[in-house]
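Reviewer comment 2.1 asked that we show a complete input and output for one of the modelled complexes. We chose the protoporphyrin IX containing FE case, as it is the one discussed in the main text.
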Amino acid sequence: MTAPTEPTEAVTTSSTTAEPGRARRRDDPTRAGPRPVDTVDGTWVVRFDRVERWLHWANATLVLTLIATGSLMYVGALSGIFGRAQVETVHLYAGLALPFPFAAALAGRWNRGLRRDARRLGRFLTDDWRWLRKRIRRQGNLRIGKFNGGQKLNAVLVAGTLPVMLATGAMLQWHDRLSDSWRTGATFVHDWGYVGLGLLVLGHILKALADPVSMQAMRRGTVPRRWALEEHPRWHDELPVSEPTEAGAPAEGGAAAATPYDDPRSDQP
Ligand code: HEM
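Response of the prediction step:
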């Protein structure tokens, strides 16, 4: 059976004509500004748009707060330092706040980049499974898309764990009507979820800190196109080869067009 050829993902391009003065910062190609995901600007590519970065850091702040306050409550001696009641209150409100950044990021037309990348993270391609199995990953014979198998696995596990933690946390907070066995079950799941989430987040942070280009992508939005070619060749090949259009104007079949990730059969062997 022959391997299917993947359709090219059509994306936008933008010009780099920088006006002097006020517009300079806005037109700095190393900053994504309001440009959509996968926009190419000279030798730079937009990896994450503003909404994605805002959601990432808002969610990271809440999750890290939850892990920190959860750790303080876990180690009873530590919670005494700050006062158990205050630590519990911060933990409760940070948990209840978790859905709001997601809701805000998904609520409007600004959600396109986020939805596109969420589809990418949720779809495991053949080379992603190979990536997860392979001991030596940098041999150059795997065609990695925008995210590698490890990033996808981490994202799926975190996305699955957060609602479970929220639900079991709510059960522990408002437990009056619950039987002992429900309470015990919720405590068990919440405690082990804390351990699992803590390990996932720790691994994620260590990987991120070891990769300055990725850190720049999450802080400013862009990465050098060359990095995309070397680290994420399948993603790079989806980027446009066409001439730049007027700033911000979608090229033919622009960013809202169908992508390989919209086609559920795109990576069937
Ligand atoms: C604490 C909760 C956090 C969660 C739930 C979280 C989740 C995610 C997810 C789902 C992604 C997209 C997939 C991926 O690239 O792995 C991502 C990307 C990223 N995260 Fe986080 N994150 C958290 C905290 C952090 C922190 C504290 C840092 C920095 C120290 C960080 C740095 C990054 C970077 C640099 C990327 C982009 C990687 C790339 O270029 O693909 N994250 N994060």
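Confidence is low (pLDDT under 50) at residues 1-19, 242-259, 264-269. We note this here for comparison with the apo prediction described in Section 3.2.
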